[in-house]
Amino acid sequence: HFLKSTLHLDEDIIKKDLKVFYQSVFDKERKDTNLFRGNIIITFNDYIINLENYSYFDKNCLRRSMTYFMDLFSTMFENEEEKDNLKKVIQINVVKNVEDEEFDKYSEEYIISDRNNNRIMPEHFRVKYYIADKIEKEENNNDDELRWIKFISAESKEERIEIAKGDELLMEMNNWLEEFTNNEYNIKRYGEWSEWLAEEKGKKIAI
């Protein structure tokens, strides 16, 4: 439902061969000082979707998110069979505390087009940014797209409950989040990872 609301695609297209890949920042094999982020990749039909979430966003983060996107796009060339059947790649970013004055609307979308005649190339390249700070101020809570972004960017249990009220899917999602975040195993993993991250940051400062 989230993808249907944000990408405005038909539900039957999204459900075709739908797969979700998530690699947590908690995974020990990913403990690299240059990779403090979880990866969420969704594939369906002929699409690859990358979901990103930023609690702070400036021009450096903008360049970084574009780099992640291009890296994902380029991986299709690693397989000879896929070179003639390239998928459409879309990155969805939910960002807060934006330090970039160019983001003056609650959503921005980047595509490839011809500068001279505005001809838009096929949708093989699409990057979307949702500015949560601005969306939170929108009073229209009947818009599925805005409501999902508000829910994802909420910073407290109380906020999520208020946003989800009356929406069966969001209420179910909120229950799942509560179970996930209060799971003893996940709490322990997060504590261990936070300690390791603090140590790594300390090493960088010492260098």
List descriptors.
207 residues; alpha/beta; 6-stranded mixed beta sheet; 42% helix
Structure description:
The radius of gyration is 19 Å and the shape is globular. 42% of the residues lie in helices and 19% in strands. It has helices spanning 2-7, 11-15, 59-74, 132-135, 144-153, 157-164, 168-181, 184-206, and strands at residues 19-23, 39-44, 47-54, 88-95, 107-111, 125-131. The protein has eight helices and six strands; from the N terminus they run H-H-E-E-E-H-E-E-E-H-H-H-H-H. It is an alpha/beta fold. The protein has a six-stranded mixed sheet, with helices on both faces. Helix 3 links the parallel strand 3 (47-54) and strand 4 (88-95). Helix 5 runs antiparallel to helix 6 (157-164) and helix 6 (157-164) packs antiparallel against helix 7. The longest helix has 23 residues, at 184-206.
Tally of alpha and pi helices = 8
| Rg measurement, Å | 19 Å
Element order, helices and strands?
HHEEEHEEEHHHHH
- Beta-strand residue fraction: 15-25%
SS-based class: alpha/beta
Shape: globular
Question: Gap between N and C termini, in Å?
Answer: 46 Å
Helix content: 40-55%
- Largest sheet features: 6 strands, mixed
Low-pLDDT residue spans: 30-36
Strand order of the largest sheet: 1-2-3-4-6-5
DSSP summary, beta strand count: 6
Average pLDDT for all residues: 79
In a few lines, what is going on in this structure?
The protein has 207 residues and is α/β, with parallel strands linked by helices.
